[in-house]
Amino acid sequence: MEAPAILEYMRENQPAIVSLLRRLVTIESPTHEKAAVDEVADAIAETVSGIAQVTRHSQPDHGDHLRIEFDIPTRGDGQVLGLGHIDTVWELGTLERMPWREADGRLWGPGVFDMKAGVVFMIFAARAIRDLRLQCRRRFVLQLNSDEEIGSPSSTRHTKTEALKSAAVLVAEPSAGLEGNLKTARKGGATYRVEAQGVASHAGLDFAAGSSAIVELAGQIQRIAAWTDLDNGLTVNPGLVRGGTASNVVAERAWTDVDVRFPTKRQADEIADLFGAIRADDPGCSVRVSGGARKLPMERTDGVIRLFRLAEKISAEMGVPLGEAAVGGGSDGNTTAALGIPTLDGLGAVGEGAHAVHESILTERIADRAALIAGLVHRL
Ligand SMILES: [Zn+2]
Asked: What is the mean pLDDT of residues 67-84?
């Protein structure tokens, strides 16, 4: 029954948690500003210097990624991976109109919810384990990426390497809803471009000599949009369309960009087959398809369910109810889950307003969320 003791530890340390969070939020870190993101990495490296080994993966364009291996009491050889990001979507100067503040039972500021609070909770989870001398079965490594908000182009390979060494991955992204649900499923996403090539002609003088790429594409779009299957969470959205040059010209070229979201890998494969089988209806036209999956889904596998049950049990010991949710957006958790590593996401702060001006976290839920992470690392 160490969960109540961990919760008590977090309550006592809440001023220190808020103080570190304030420090990180007041260093703005938009993904494209390397120097700014590096400053957050510096602050974190300094904070954990006495309790962890820090490896810095230097990046020429983006901020550096951090691998933090905490010195905690362990019996075994395995690894639990904490995963977070230190970049935000907020441009430099945002603090002037969205300043750090503590009001109405919340903490406010750019990146406080997505996800500097989650990063701070991970650090304090390790501190609790050390200070309370909780024997863990596995070592605890925290990887902090600097480029998650633009799709993790340079960090994904580090995420994969660490995930493959891990028994479980705990992702510090914000929780879902003001009740703080964990995220046990995330959709994957794909983008396809469908481009029709026809034959141009004068719409008045020589109409019959033309083959309209627009008419061809319009027919294709009708069929593509009908692949949406809301009951099974599959959406297919031709969200952008361009084509033609003038109303008196039979259009030579037209294209559409299609956004697809799918809860399972199987649906991703089926959709890829459908796009691959597209052929032109009009013999005077040709159709070319490019693109594919950007992110594979995080599926609610048996391993994910077992992780969630453990989290539920630890929360219950602290007297806190815990729910789960399936969400649309992707995170680095999709990458680790696609490797088959049990992944639990949404372990960060309880709050609302990710990427929005009312971004904030609930002060009264700081202690139990940080304690939940510590409890998971201890028992995994
Ligand atoms: Zn995030």
From this structure: 94
